[in-house]
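pasting for the record
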Amino acid sequence: MEGPVPPPAAAVKMWRGGPDWQPAAASPAIPGTKIAGSGLREGPVPEIQLGGRSFVVDEEGFLQQPELWDDEVARLFATTEGITEMDAQQWAVVRFIRQYWVEHQSAPMIRKLCQATGTNLRAIFRMFPSGPAKGACKVAGLPKPEGCV
């Protein structure tokens, strides 16, 4: 399985981990080298360093190698969404999204997610402040969902 074509080095932005993850200006750093203090690398393929592990991500921090996902990866990516500890309801949402993606190679529709987990949309936004598509899917290790703005 081939991943997406990486952007040219000049178009790659630097990122820093944390709940307020925002793009920064491009750096003259050597592509592929660690950006001091950021936990991320700059180069043709953005990487994020979480918990001593390196992950290839897109420009918005979505995991580009979903086969690497496990519970520990979910916990690490949750920290980028400002979640310090996942509760049972958050795990139910993440596991449903993940299972659906494994079976269908796409994220579930919001309505299906709410029905399957018995959680309403408002509660999902409380659990994942950036929403089900950006927050919950990122924690579930999915690539950026189609139609996700």
